[in-house]
Amino acid sequence: MTNIRCVVAAVGSCLALAAPAWGQSNIDAEADPVNWLKAYLGGAACVVYEVGPSGFRLEHVTENTEVQFDGCRMVLQQASVTGAHSELRTFRIALAALDTNAVTSSEGFPLPEGWTSRGDVPTHTITIRASAGKPVIEEQVDPLDGGTPRSYQTDVVTLLVRHEENASQIVRALTRVIEMCRTGSSR
To answer: In this structure, is residue 151 part of a structural domain?
Structure first.
C-alpha cells in the first residue's frame, strides 16, 4: 500500500485528476467498483481551499484520500494539512460488516457556525457509517508534525469531494462493493 506521507506531492497529481471521475472513467464502476475506486476516488477526494471564522482569518486546507482493498477490507488514508498542522488518518473498514445503505452523500461540507470558506471548496460530503453506531471502523491518526499517534474505534468516516457526479459515483461504487462483500461475491 502506498503511504501518503507527502501531501504537497499528492496535491499536484490530484489536481490533475479533480475533474469529474465520470468524465475520465474507462472502468465500469458497476461491474468493477474496486478498480474504479482505486483509479478515481483519490482525484475526486482531493480538495484545496481556505476556511476560517472570517475572511481575514482563513487557514489553508489541503486534503487527499487514497483507497486500497485487501479482499473485503478497505483501507482509506486521508492526508490533510490545515494551517501548520498536518496528519495522516488511516481507516480500516470491514465492508461485509456494513449495511448496504451505509454510504450516503450530502451537499456541502460541515463548517462551524459563522465560518466562511473560499477557493475550490468541496461540494459534497460522503459519509460511511456503521449500523446502529457500532464503532467497527479502526482509525489511526498519525500527526506528521511531531505529535503522538493515536488509535480509535469509530462508527463514521467522511470524505470531502468536489462535483456532484463524483459523489454519486463514489456512493454507487462503495455500495456495490459492500453488496458484493455481504454476498461473498467479491474477489
So the answer is: yes
- Backbone φ and ψ for 82, nearest 5 degrees, come out as -125, 110
* Average pLDDT value for the chain: 86
CB atoms within 10 A of CB 149: 11
| Grid cell at residue 129 | 457509517
Looking at the 3D structure of the chain, how many domains does it have? 1
Is position 13 within any domain?
A: yes
What cell was used for 145? 508534525
Segment 12-68, tens digit of pLDDT:
445 444 444 444 557 777 789 999 999 999 989 999 999 999 999 999 999 999 999
pTM of the model: 0.83
29/145 Cα distance (integer angstroms) = 37
Calculate mean pLDDT across residues 143-168: 93
Domain that holds residue 96: 7-183
The answer as to whether 2 is a domain residue is: no
Write the pLDDT tens digit of every residue in 55-114.
Answer: 999 999 999 999 999 999 999 999 999 999 999 999 999 999 999 999 999 999 988 999
Is 1 domain-assigned?
no
Residue 32: burial class (beta carbons within 10 Å; 0-12, 13-18, 19+): middle
